[in-house]
From TrEMBL, chains A, B:
Keywords: Oxidoreductase. One of its GO terms (molecular function) is oxidoreductase activity. The keyword Oxidoreductase applies. This is LDH2 family malate/lactate/ureidoglycolate dehydrogenase. Signal peptide: none annotated. Belongs to the LDH2/MDH2 oxidoreductase family. Gene3D superfamilies: 1.10.1530.10, Hypothetical oxidoreductase yiak, domain 2. Pfam families: Ldh_2.
């Protein structure tokens, strides 16, 4: 049914989605240890209605694992650097298995010392950051995560792409509620969004990009060949630069443009580092001031403002009732790429 | 000469500026320990051509020290919380003497463990964040600093001010160059800028604020009575919320709206907490990847993009040659408010 031209959506249980992705990845030669964290992340994204980082990413994995440096059976190596810092070398597998290897150490250190840091190196990265920071918040910790990508984004006032889309995610544990979580690229738009405008033959909104000569352009083809722009003018540009420095130079890994050079046109997921910082809010809270944070977050939602994460949480509830929606065409495409 | 109607600018040496501010503050009853870090910060800002946080702020100090809870002779109290965390109670003096009290501990902890955190509580805050993060970068560390303010800023999509202008500053140590430093408010514009538009009878740019009914407005008077907006849409709003949580609830101090309630119309500087995180980039750098950060920052500047901090550094050089420029009217006003 799913392979008809007007393929209707299919609805799968979470274990069916996990099974689908595991069959795909293991069938294509990945170790179960490499595949499982990726399957879990894609299933979470699909369940939360976050299409950009859900099953849609699965076919592209084939380009990544075809990269000459990708190791399908990589075993991440954890190094206990100091009482506050851990580092995991992903050894040219996916970045997520390395993150999972390091998380218990990050959490234990933050609980003991109030703050801790986890550096991931040499990981091919294409999964969303929010499932990881949400998981850390489940331990009662606040978490901040960031990474470079490829050098597609021009600095504000500049003309050539040298910064990455450099996402940043944050989670804050709430009392008796799912955590406050955001995850955004510091580029004005996602590269996939620009590709979508191109597909639909529509001009881009102003401020998304520059052509190859560094001039503002609303032509998606010109912008994909030129440079993307950061969100929020010089402030977003400064933030993107901070993320670039903190998650490449600071942890001894590739900058966005080095990651792009490393890709050498393979169209694999970017291979680089990732920084996660965890904080223990229980350590310093409880001064003489009444904690206003729950009332503040409730008030943001009450004003009708978008509380980051809330749409995903609504979709998550819906998926729990009706199953996880997978577009029929995507489902067919995954089945068609499934190894025998 | 400076008190003539067309008061020409005066040019002072750094020690003359420091002396001017010290006479002002000590003359108004502040202990030398409270006054000195504030004098140093105002002199640095004036020297760097950062007028918003320079001597222009000095007259307003009189409102702050008149707040019933302000302690002109407060002695900050340092608490060594864990091997990675220090906390200083400013005890209702200025926040900066508390920061200076805690900095050696922050720096030592970051050098030893790779990451550390300093929480400041109960400080009246009006000085720029950049001189502090720049100082930390002078020790070879990266630094991130943030604080709430008063509840003037509506969340993106909301209608009422509940978040602060919530600034964030970052410094990154460079090789043989002054550090990469930014310091920006997460509001679209500074409150002082809106007041300036009002003074000049000019309409505001779109996107700066809302009127008291939560509708977009370009009328500065309406926006000052209504709400300011965050920079960069929902992303800037998320960032402002993160800063609010991390520098109030996480460190057991007042949120922006609690700080505003605490002020009770006194028009003092906001009294709240401040968070500083320091990182030791030497700990994890030096992997197999050549550090691209210096070339990247050089390239940003070469593209003609504004490298944050570079304008201040140029002004600093000029001040070192010609003296620190102080507008004649401001100089007269300070002298007029100088106690006998």
């Amino acid at each position: 049914m799913a392979d008809l031209p007007d393929s209707p959506d299919v609805f799968l249980s979470e274990s069916e989605v996990l099974d689908l992705v595991m069959r795909f990845l293991v069938g294509h030669g990945l170790s179960r240890e490499q595949a499982a964290p990726v399957a879990s992340s894609l299933a979470k994204a699909q369940k939360d209605g976050c299409r950009s980082h859900g099953l849609q990413r699965l076919p592209g994995v084939l380009d990544t694992i075809a990269h000459p440096r990708f190791d399908k059976r990589a075993e991440p190596e954890l190094k206990d650097v100091t009482d506050a810092v851990a580092q995991v070398d992903a050894r040219f597998g996916f970045s997520l298995p390395a993150v999972e290897r390091g998380l218990p150490s990050l959490v234990a250190k933050a609980k003991a010392l109030g703050i801790s840091m986890l550096a991931i190196n040499n990981g091919f990265h294409f999964t969303a950051l929010w499932p990881v920071v949400e998981e850390i918040a489940g331990h009662g910790l606040a978490a901040l995560s960031m990474n470079p990508s490829h050098g597609w984004v021009a600095p504000f006032g500049g003309g050539k792409g040298i910064l990455g889309t450099n996402p940043m995610a944050f989670a804050w544990p709430r009392k008796n509620q799912l955590p406050y979580v955001f995850d955004f690229a510091t580029s004005a738009a996602a590269r996939a969004d620009i590709a979508l405008y191109k597909q639909q033959g529509k001009p881009l909104p102003e401020g998304w990009g520059l052509d190859a000569d560094g001039r503002p352009s609303t032509d998606p083809t010109a912008v994909l060949a030129g440079a993307m722009l950061p969100f929020g003018g010089h402030k977003g540009s400064a933030l993107a630069t901070m993320i670039e420095l903190m998650s490449s130079a600071m942890i001894g890994d590739r900058s966005s443009r080095q990651s792009q050079a490393f890709d050498a046109g393979a169209k694999a997921a970017p291979c680089h580092g990732e920084l996660i910082v965890a904080f223990n809010p229980a350590l310093l809270a409880g001064g003489s001031v009444t904690d206003d944070s729950e009332a503040l977050l409730d008030e943001i939602a009450r004003q009708g403002a978008r509380l980051p994460g809330s749409r995903r949480y609504r979709e998550r509830q819906a998926s729990e009732k009706q199953g996880i929606r997978v577009p029929g065409l995507l489902y067919s495409r995954i089945l068609a790429l499934m190894p025998d």
